[in-house]
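Quiz preparation item.
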């Protein structure tokens, strides 16, 4: 096998005929400015070709399931291995997918509990065991002498049908009777069973009297009923209590039997194991009273009842509220927080048997009189949610609903019998609720009998190794019960990385996209050790990364640039980190060497008197903390992964202020109050979610630039002569678009048993518009050519049109000069989408009293781009606004005016305030991990 991967003539996206040789079985870092072509080379060329070759080696039948991949634009690649991509896409949005199921640890736990778990009674909690026939006989013989009893065994319980064959086999036994729905049937009788009704059918042994010498008769009788029944023996003591015994597991006190313990019993995805109330989800979607009345400072007339806030005052619902208020003598103009509890109860849940009477305008039927009970807002919404076929209506009602813990399983997802099986005193749900590190300690110190150890040795080995892999990549604070959909991109990527480490594959090419995202510097060494383990056993790692620690650990670095977009796509430098530092053409080398740096500000802004204060934050792992965010400054919220940063900022600060300022419907995390909201007038969250989910959405449409560009085209002399309005230049409506492709620019061709193929539209050649529309030009370019421009080109082209120019300049300032105006939103990374949003907000006129929330805005950014971002954030703050960023990047933290450091650890050991103050003050707190690394950065 060759010791190098050789790439020749790579031209994918902005790559300029790149030739490259990289060593195999090494840790290789691809770096460079955002948009320089790193992902195009790593993912769209090398990984794509590795995948394509593997898929092409399969039969056409197999390819229809795996998909058909296009050959990337490259002349050839030598030395490729089978390739696996580990990117930042969240593992799964399915609520049934958890950390445990994704890593397969939960599958091993199910097997462990099924093989060595100890069952307990779901009712009384007593440990229960299965019994042999001899043990049953011994137990019966301990009853007082002369005790009369019958032995019964259930055959059918609560099932419909005639069961004729089953009854015939029972009749063949000499001294056995049949009891149908409680009545004994004689052997010779014709047994009539209604096939449409549910039945309880038991086989019954003739009456037995306990006395010395009847052991053989009891043994024969028990063997008979066990053979005909289902393993459960009921000893019906005449003039006494029933006793239940089982060859399976049964509680003799409560009469509850547990079926055979098997792995499926612990699965919340199958009926055999799932809680029947919530179907294994652990929660119910219910209308939330706090979302129905989100603001108690409003009156009913002002819209306090949110679902009907805009209803007509002559309509049915408003008149219903009015009638209930009149009954209690309460004014419609008074704040609802002063309303009697009984009044609010009747509005929310209905008047029951109490009737109300009122006139209302039925819109289409004129005025009518209603007399009867009022259904209640919550029952009304829940009924309509269940009955409607309209997605719009379901989404609208869902905005007033929240997930509530299932009242039966209390979020455990499993049925009581499954949760009654314990190991080391814990059931399987309690075990998955423990943080990874605690769970590993529990499993390693589990006390088992010699027989159990023999059975469970291999299972425990697999569980231990997988838990250790999660520790290696810095995820010790997660729990196995955590839903996969709630993980960040970085967490999701590291979980898949841990799974790959566990697979122990050799000779594989792994391509990773910034695995250090969301990881505190303290945990970075763990991640790098895990990556090194993969190369040590004979794999090649290509890591797209900006992290300095990763570069210093790498065997080989490929620096791509020199700029972004059309200015990138070239190999600037290759070699070890020392060789990159020595290369003065490399911007990466400039920042690694210190030739360029992000300077610590000479003076920091001093927080004023005003602050936004969260009281008693207790959501997730937050320990009832009070946190102040000074207004008018840049605040960085820091801490190790899992310390509670996102919970504090995104779940409480943002949602709480959004509810107060903009009547937001999302329920904030648990806290007692937020003070100081009067110091701001607007809150804006700038996250990394897509700016659109279809190719029709692009930066031009999202920022509003496209609307203004269409205005410009509509004002041209050619457009006026032809009578074209601005709508003519939209690719979303009939008129100016190409109707062959409906403005998509591409045509989908169905390949039946092969995947669909997308080809450029033959009519418009991918331009999206018809010929007549494209004949209209502004400054020599048609509308399609404008959409194909980069932001940087657009700045110069529209320099005389202030509205367009201002927005494009801001996009250029945040480092997006390389993206195209019409680039589909589906092709933008999370970091690019976040900066498009940031540019959109920056281009708006600021009130100076806005608070901006950003979650790791440096994701996907090179140090040079971080430099630009900091300049942009400074502009926001200089205008009087407040900026709060969740960050691990030390360059951003060191320029912040104020830092809130959470921890000290992740998960249950986090959620406390470790330190607050300026970066210098944080460095003086020994308990702060952030401070330890920040001190080194400030010293540099």
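Solution:
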């Amino acid at each position: 096998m060759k010791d190098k991967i050789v790439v020749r003539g790579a031209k994918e996206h902005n790559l300029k005929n790149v030739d490259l040789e990289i060593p195999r079985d090494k840790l290789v870092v691809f770096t460079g400015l955002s948009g320089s072509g790193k992902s195009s080379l790593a993912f769209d060329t090398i990984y794509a070709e590795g995948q394509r070759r593997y898929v092409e080696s399969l039969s056409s039948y197999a390819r229809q399931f795996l998909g058909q991949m296009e050959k990337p634009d490259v002349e050839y690649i030598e030395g490729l291995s089978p390739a696996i991509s580990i990117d930042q896409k969240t593992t799964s949005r399915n609520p049934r997918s958890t950390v445990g199921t994704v890593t397969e640890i939960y599958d091993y736990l199910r097997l462990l509990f099924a093989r060595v778990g100890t069952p307990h009674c779901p009712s009384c909690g007593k440990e229960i065991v299965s019994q042999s026939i001899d043990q049953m006989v011994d137990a019966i013989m301990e009853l007082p002498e002369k005790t009369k009893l019958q032995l019964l065994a259930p055959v059918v319980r609560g099932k419909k049908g005639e069961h004729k064959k089953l009854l015939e086999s029972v009749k063949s036994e000499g001294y056995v009777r049949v009891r149908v729905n409680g009545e004994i049937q004689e052997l010779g009788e014709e047994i009539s069973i209604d096939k449409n009704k549910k039945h309880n059918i038991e086989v019954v042994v003739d009456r037995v009297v306990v006395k010395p010498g009847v052991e053989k008769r009891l043994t024969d009788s028990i063997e008979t009923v066990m053979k005909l029944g289902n393993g459960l023996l009921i000893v019906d003591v005449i003039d006494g209590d029933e006793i239940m015994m089982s060859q399976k597991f049964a509680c003799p006190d409560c009469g509850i039997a547990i079926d055979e313990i098997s792995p499926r019993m612990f699965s919340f995805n199958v009926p055999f194991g799932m809680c029947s109330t919530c179907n294994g989800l652990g929660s119910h979607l219910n209308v939330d009273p706090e979302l129905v009345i989100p603001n108690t400072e409003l009156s009913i007339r002002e819209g306090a009842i949110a679902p009907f806030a805009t209803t007509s005052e002559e309509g049915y619902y408003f008149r219903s509220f009015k009638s209930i208020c009149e009954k209690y003598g309460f004014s419609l103009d008074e704040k609802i927080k002063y309303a009697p509890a009984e009044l609010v109860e009747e509005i929310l849940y209905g008047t029951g048997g109490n009737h109300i009477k009122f006139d209302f305008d039925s819109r289409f039927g004129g005025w009518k009189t209603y007399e009867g009970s009022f259904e209640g807002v919550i029952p009304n919404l829940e009924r309509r949610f269940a009955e409607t076929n309209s997605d719009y209506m379901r989404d609208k009602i869902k905005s007033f609903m929240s997930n509530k813990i299932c009242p039966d399983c209390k979020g455990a997802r499993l049925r009581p019998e499954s949760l009654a099986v314990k190991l080391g005193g814990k059931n399987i749900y309690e075990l998955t609720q423990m943080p990874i590190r605690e769970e590993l300690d529990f499993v390693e110190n589990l006390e088992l009998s010699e027989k159990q150890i023999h059975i469970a040795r291999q299972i425990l080995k697999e569980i231990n190794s997988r838990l250790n892999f999660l520790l290696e990549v810095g995820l010790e604070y997660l729990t196995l019960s955590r839903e996969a959909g709630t993980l960040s991109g970085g967490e999701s990527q590291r979980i898949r990385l841990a799974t790959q480490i566990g697979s122990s594959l050799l000779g594989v090419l792994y391509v990773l996209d910034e695995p250090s995202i969301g990881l505190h510097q303290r945990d970075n060494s763990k991640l790098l050790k895990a990556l090194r383990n993969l190369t040590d056993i004979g794999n090649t790692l290509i890591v797209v990364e900006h992290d300095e620690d990763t570069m210093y650990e790498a065997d080989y670095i490929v620096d791509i640039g020199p700029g972004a977009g059309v200015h990138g796509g070239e190999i600037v430098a290759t070699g070890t980190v020392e060789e990159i530092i020595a290369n003065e053409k490399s911007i990466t080398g400039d920042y690694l060497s210190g030739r360029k740096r992000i300077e610590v500000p000479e003076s920091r802004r001093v927080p004023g008197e005003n602050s936004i204060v969260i009281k008693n934050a207790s959501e997730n792992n937050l320990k009832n903390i009070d946190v102040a965010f000074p207004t008018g400054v840049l605040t960085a919220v820091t801490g190790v992964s899992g310390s509670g940063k996102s919970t504090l900022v995104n779940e409480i600060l943002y949602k709480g202020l959004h509810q107060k300022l903009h009547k937001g419907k999302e329920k904030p995390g648990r806290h007692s109050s937020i003070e100081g909201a009067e110091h701001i007038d607007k809150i804006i969250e700038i996250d990394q979610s897509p700016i659109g989910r279809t190719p029709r959405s692009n930066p031009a449409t999202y920022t509003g630039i496209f609307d203004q560009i269409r205005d410009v085209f509509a004002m041209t002399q050619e457009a006026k002569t032809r009578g074209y309005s601005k709508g003519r230049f939209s690719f979303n409506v009939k008129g100016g678009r190409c109707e062959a492709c409906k403005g998509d620019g591409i045509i989908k061709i169905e390949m039946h048993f092969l995947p669909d193929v997308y080809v450029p539209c033959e009519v418009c050649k991918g331009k999206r518009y018809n010929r007549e529309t494209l004949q209209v030009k502004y400054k020599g370019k048609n509308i399609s050519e404008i959409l194909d421009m980069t932001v940087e080109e657009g700045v110069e082209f529209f320099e005389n049109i202030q509205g367009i120019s201002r927005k494009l300049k801001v996009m250029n300032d945040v480092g997006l000069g390389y993206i195209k105006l019409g680039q589909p939103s589906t092709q933008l990374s999370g970091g690019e989408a976040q900066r498009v949003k940031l540019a959109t907000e920056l281009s708006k006129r600021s009130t100076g009293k806005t608070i901006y929330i950003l979650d790791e805005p440096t994701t996907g950014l090179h140090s040079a781009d971080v430099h630009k971002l900091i300049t942009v954030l400074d502009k926001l703050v200089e205008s009087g606004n407040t900026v709060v960023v969740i960050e691990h990047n030390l360059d951003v933290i060191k320029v912040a005016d104020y830092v809130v450091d959470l921890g000290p650890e992740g998960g249950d050991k986090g959620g406390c305030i470790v330190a607050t103050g300026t970066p210098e003050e944080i460095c003086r707190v020994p308990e702060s991990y952030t401070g330890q690394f920040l001190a080194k950065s400030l010293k540099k």
